[in-house]
Amino acid sequence: MTKPEHWQFICNPAYWNIQKKLSSDEIYDDWVISKSWKDVIAKGQLGFIRVGIDNRTIKKLKQLKRKKLEPGYYALVEIVEIYYGKTSYPNNWINPTGIEEDWRVKIKILKNYFKRPLKIEKLKNIKLKNKFNFDKVVFKPTQGKPNIPLSKNTFDKLYELAEGETNNKLIFGHVDKVKIGQVFKDRSALSKAGVHGPTMHGIWGRENEGACSIVLSGGYEDDIDELDYIFYTGQGGQDIPGGKQVADQEFIRGNKALMLSCKYSLPVRVTRGYQIKNGPTKGYRYDGLYYVNKFERVKGKSGYYICRFHLSSEKQIDILEKEIKPNLKPDYKRVDRAATTVSRIKRDVSLSENIKEIYGYKCQVCNVYLKTPYGAIAIGAHIKGLGKPHNGPDVIENMICLCPNHHEQFDDHGFYIDSETYEIKGLEGYDGKKITLNKKHNIEKSFLKYHLEDYKNNN
Ligand SMILES: [Zn+2]
To answer: Which CATH superfamily is domain 6-166 in?
Structure first.
């Protein structure tokens, strides 16, 4: 069995005044631990304070003017120290047994969920992979042992859910009183300011709401950062956070959220950590709003698939550099981009109009003609995309005329066109059908081949 690194600290509200503690500003406390775990539990590990069963009587609760606490997770804590001795916080003990000498850990409260705890009741429909038998305890409001381990999977899931409960609403755009270039001393401070809620995950978002913020802290080898332009690697697939890529990433959780940010053009706050080249010397710097231009699934350096997001700053690089200059590293240097980028995508409007005219504004896939009082709707689509990362050319040999639906599907790897036969592949209802071709229009095969490679990577 792998050694546990995550814990739940069980609290009995009849003995330890959790309400008093979590309503105060004091972030340290200590906790009795089972002797059997004293050599396993270690500094820096994380856990939750959990209420098992609140067995205070109605009479007692009335007297205290308090409500019964439901079984659930009430705080995220970090283990600071392991020692044998008395509590340094006797005031929180209602029953004096808690202050005897014992094996203890000093804990730091990183996140206080008291106002909106993650209730056990909410976990009924959550499926967790049980690596540890202890995980079963998650679902049973048992009392008893002072600390019980959790597997990493279960811990991660509980953390995500607890965060979801606390941060009721995601806030998109700038945060009040936070300026571009402002530096926060650590992730907790960043979280407190409302810039980036989760203290560990790089993406702050939800699958059905989008992502409002990301942090770049050097945890992924495939990240590329040019300050105003970022290739951001999604989350998941690592053995430990910031560790090796050992599995493919999927468009779920934070990755799904960033995908929505792209589709709905939602602003994403970007914060850089001291760990990366373009970060600040110390702490975490807020660098303003970016937009996700594109997402794709590509093979990363490790050989596993990663979800990659292309973000660009709403500001031009000169302005951005100027605003964050006091908090850039002294050896900061702008990436030489002459070879890799075109700063603004220039597209030739006449080419787009031209291809639509060639096909009479009809979709080359489905032949639909979409009439409006201002002319028909059709899109002159590029086969190999313009701009990063594809850098396809703006020439008519790299274009096709599509209806909006088929344009979206083509761009999002829903189907491809065979470069030899011009047959549509992978699109229900059109599979094997040849696209409409006009003699005046030659499609360059290499672009279709390029699109096919991209299609394969994403399917
Ligand atoms: Zn169509």
So the answer is: ph1033 like domains (3.10.590.10)
